[in-house]
Amino acid sequence: MTTPEKLESGKLSWMSLDDVEARVRALESLLVERGLAESAAVDAVVNAFENDMGPMNGAKVVARAWTEPDFKEWLLRDATSAIGSMGFTGLQSEHLLAVENTDDVHNVIVCTLCSCYPWTLLGIPPAWFKYPQYRARVVKEPREVLKEFGVELGPEVRIDVWDTSAELRYLVLPQRPAGTEGWSAEQLAEIVSRDSMVGVALVSVPS
Amino acid sequence: MTASITVPDLEGVAAIPRSNGEPTFDAPWQSRAFGMVVSLHEQGLYPWDEFKTLLIDEIERSGITDTCDPAVYYRQFTGAFFRLLEARGILSAEDLEVRTDEEKRLLAHEDEHTDDHGHGH
User: Fold this and answer.
1) Which of A27, A31, A91 is closest, CB to CB, to B9?
2) Residue A169: C-alpha distances to residues A59, A78, A119, B9 (Å)
3) Is the same domain home to B64 and B116?
């Protein structure tokens, strides 16, 4: 058993403890017992971190760009600051670049080296994002890969493939679909899918 | 109900481990430790920087500053958390010691239970 003295600051690093699991459980049960922590609140943080941190954050960014021209201009000029101003930062130091889909250009994101991904905006990446097939093929034959995702682009549309790295991550600003005139940013955010912000889907109005 | 969760900022040497850019935990105790630190901060028990300073110190003191291994990082993380609680008089090493022994017994019992039945719950 580790004596209390050994745990005092500066005397023993937690690195060498073999019962760290029991210690963490002890910390939680003591804090809960003293009314300082609530297990449900701890669960909520963990869930938010693991599951819910996106893609709603990214969708909010897109919806705001669709409804506020000044914000859109800022987003395209300096996505790191524009997105940071909405509070979606932290835990990562890489820069963000927003790329806009238009009638002439369609953008799609890949990470050819590994699977870097703007997860604070888009949540946990989909499994296919990590598949070597996607990583290799979307660079070589993007039009074909997009077709497999159900996105058929006319020959006049240029496809730009952006290769994410640990330092620079991309967010696709999809085109706002017709039929959404007068919608609020909240309504719009609900129809912006994760895939549309990776560039493998278009945003459509649910029928 | 998750919109209120603010993601704290931890960069450089104190950055959260990630597998290919994703944050990772490889054992439940790691996510519990993370959740406790963030939720108590959100409740206003301490400013984030107070924790961050201790975490950086803990990482530097351990001599392992460049790991992506969550098992190492969350030890440093938990060490910093305990130091914070201790410094603020919230928990003592003795409190923790006594409760840890209880939890160890419970864990051992759970293991036994799992072995008996050949599967967990």
Assistant:
1) A91
2) 16, 12, 10, 18
3) no
Sign (positive/negative) of CA torsion A181, A186, A192, A193? negative
Q: Domain A54-198 carries which CATH code?
A: 3.90.330.10
Q: How close, in Å, is residue B14 to chain A by CA atoms?
A: 9
Q: What residues of A are in contact with residue B83 (Cβ under 8 Å)?
A: 9
Task: Say if B54 falls within a structural domain.
Answer: yes
The pLDDT profile of chain A, 207 residues, written as one tens digit per residue, is 444 444 444 444 677 677 899 999 999 999 999 999 988 888 888 777 765 555 678 899 999 999 999 999 999 999 988 988 887 764 443 688 999 999 999 999 987 775 566 766 776 566 677 777 888 899 999 999 999 989 999 999 999 999 987 678 889 999 999 999 999 999 999 899 888 999 999 999 987
Give the chain B residue nearest A50 (alpha carbons).
B23
Give the Cα separation of B80 and B29 in Å (integer).
15
Q: Please identify every residue of A annotated as catalytic.
A: 111, 114-116
Q: Hunting for tokens 């209120």 — which residue is that?
A: B4
Interface test with B, best of A2, A5, A13, A14 (most B CBs within 10 A): A14
Q: Answer for the pair A108, A161: CB distance below 8 angstroms, yes or no.
A: yes
Q: Which of B58, B99, B104 sits opposite A30 (nearest CB)?
A: B99
